[in-house]
Amino acid sequence: MDGAALVGEFRRALLLVPLIGEAVWSADSGGVRWVYAFTGEESLGRFLAARGVGPGAEVRYMRVYGARLLDVAVPAIGVPAGIAVDVAGPWPGLLPPVVGIVSPTAAVAA
Fold first, then answer.
1. Which of 8, 27, 70, 95 has its CA 20 to 30 A from that of 104?
2. pLDDT, tens only, 47-86
3. Model pLDDT for residues 10-30, shown as the tens digit of each residue
């Protein structure tokens, strides 16, 4: 699958985004804020376990389409931001803040 098709699939996918308080769970690395998103409860559970969150702990999350993350959430963050997908799973991926993935106003200069 080529890059454009992969981004298209992501845009149509319903994802789980964990919350800390009212904010999405994210991390800063290399000058980019990475928002964590997961394709299912199993991958979210692996992420939580890797961070020491026990199986009985309640962690709030929202369900959101990838398009909404890329078109609304990323630009609203106010700093360069991308999406880290299934980061604790066997097939993790990153959608960086570049033109073609996010809107030109939210993309970082090459």
1. 27
2. 999 999 988 888 999 999 999 999 999 999 999 999 999 9
3. 999 999 999 999 999 999 998
- Under a CB-based contact definition with an 8 Å cutoff, are residues 32 and 49 in contact? no
d(CA 104, CA 24): 22
Q: Report residue 16 as tokens.
A: 């789980």
Q: What is the DSSP string of 49-102?
A: HHTT--TT----EEEEEHHHIIIIIHHHHSS-EEEEESTTSSS-EEE-S-BTTB
Taking alpha carbons only, the member of 36, 8, 30 closest to residue 100 is 8
φ and ψ of 63, to 5 deg: -100, 130
Token digits of residue 76: 């609203």
pLDDT at 89: 85
Which residues make beta-bridge pairs with 83? Answer: 35, 95
Tokens of 65: 């389409």
pTM of the model: 0.92
